[in-house]
Amino acid sequence: MFLQRIGSKGIRLGTLFDRAAARHPANLVILDHDLDIAPQLGRRATLTELADLVDDFASRLWSVGARPGDHVVVHKSDGFDISLLACAVARTGAIPVLLSPQLDGATVAELIRRVGRPFLVTDRDKLDHHLPAEVFDLSREVLLASGEHEGAVSFASLAGVERVPAVPMPIDHPTLITHTSGTTGTPKLAVHTGMSFQARYRPQATVVKSAVRRSEPVAVHVSFVHSRMFTAMPIAILQGHPLIVLRDDDPATVGDLFAQVPPGFIEAHPNSFLRWEVLADDPRGPLANVKYFSSTFDAIHPRTVNTLLKGSRRKGRRFAQAYGQSEVGPIAARTYSLKDGTDFNGRCVGVPFPGMTGVRVVSRNGAPVSKENPGFIEVRSDGRIVTYLGEHGRWQKQVNDGWWRMGDLGFRTRFGCLHLLDREVDEIPGVQSTLEIEDKLFTRLPELVEVIVIPGPDGRAVPVVCTQDDAPLDELAWKSAVVDLPALGAPVQWRLEDLPQTATTKIKRLELARLITDAPAG
Q1: Which of 129, 399, 418, 516 is the most exposed place for a label (fewest CB within 10 A)?
Q2: Measured on CA atoms in the order 65, 71, 77, 82, is the torsion positive or negative?
């Protein structure tokens, strides 16, 4: 789309921190954890220090043979240094391949095999307890972010190598490979270019620039291996915002940090915002300064939106929800205010970004698309990935004359607003929208911390529920909440931590349905 292309130089991850430090050298990045590759930096580092760190580790990678066009897989224990290492890899001209710390060893080995003898950056804990021994045979070299291990080279042993300059790469060259959520099977490896990332950056950067002052901190709790991190992070540091980077979403620790450094803008996963509802009533006011809450990963529920907005004391505060996907970036967006209340239509996910993204909904059966007859959602954006690594045919199946099929079902109103009803694979016969049911249950039952509607063994819709502190579900309140909803099976109560989740805290609905089906009676 033309506004995504004008004057684009690409995202340039390898020099990102150099450019940010040149503009705002003393600006801080504030962490809730220590960096495995540089624990000496502590939890507050300047952009100048981080630019030097990226340069240092790029030079260490160069010293072991990483060169332009090579692939470097990063799969280590969770931390912001995953994102910093990605920038270091890109600085050499090589292509970082980021694999979530949550992936099991067999899946990691399969994805390394698909990449084809890459360098592997990991750590001792992963090698000792999670990864199969075959990763050594599948990798050109194994490098350790922390610890020592036979057959691997530690980054610590490479300290002091000669610094090398950044290698510029064309904007249409692969700049980063991330993986899809894996909610429907083995993750796919999504190939992003400098151009596609810059195309995603622009609409989001415009929103942040107009939303909060430059001096206000931006807080980010996003998977360090997710493509969203590599637009959220550049927006903050290039615009001059102090950046708060969270690894954990525990409300107690988040509340402590936000009380000390009140953010003006927060980007996080929907399930993290759900956990942070308790912060709205915290007497220290950790959310009091927030002008904008923002989420792009999954459905956000009206109750959560309203609760968080009540926790802020800023005039004109908003909750921004963007609809998108790892493969294409943000496509449509809308904002909510307190005036929308707790019962607004959460299925309305907004309108496309003018001049940047496009949306259409294609009929499945030839009949006009409507709420009663939802169609396939297809989108257009220059932020779209260029292929799935090793599975280009699979990528081609989702492209139709330049339009990308999202795998979602929905419709558009006469005013152009896009309504998302369900994922194609999650559709349950006789149920118009599982997501709409979940929205209503959250609003009607404040004790719920999660509810997922899935098909049961007999095909009937079954709600899986999690409650605050695992308290027993109130049966009378439940019966009252579902009286006007489509017929549902009896609710199944689980502990939140037992639900299968992706790296971005999405619930793996298909896996959960399988677990429910395989569970013994009672």
Answers
A1: 129
A2: positive
Residues of the chain with pLDDT under 70: 1-7, 182-185, 297-299, 503-505, 519-522
pLDDT digits (tens, 9 = 90+) for 498-508: 998 876 667 88
Structure tokens at 396: 């081609």
Q: What is the pLDDT of residue 208?
A: 85
Q: 369-406: string of b/e by CB count within 10 Å (b at 16+)?
A: beeeebbbbbbbbbbbbbbbbeeeeebeebeeeebbbb
Burial of 7: CB neighbours in 10 Å, binned 0-12, 13-18, 19+: exposed
Rounded distance between C-alpha atoms, residue 311 and residue 267, angstroms: 16
Pinpoint the alpha helices (H) of 246-388. 251-260, 270-275, 302-311
Q: What is the CA radius of gyration of the chain?
A: 23
Query: Which amino acid does the sequence have at 217?
Result: P
Q: Is the overall model pTM greater than 0.85, yes or no?
A: yes
Burial call 46-64: b when 16+ CB within 10 Å, e when fewer: bbbbbbbbbbbbbbbbbee
Residue among 239, 238, 240, 258 nearest 248 (CA): 258
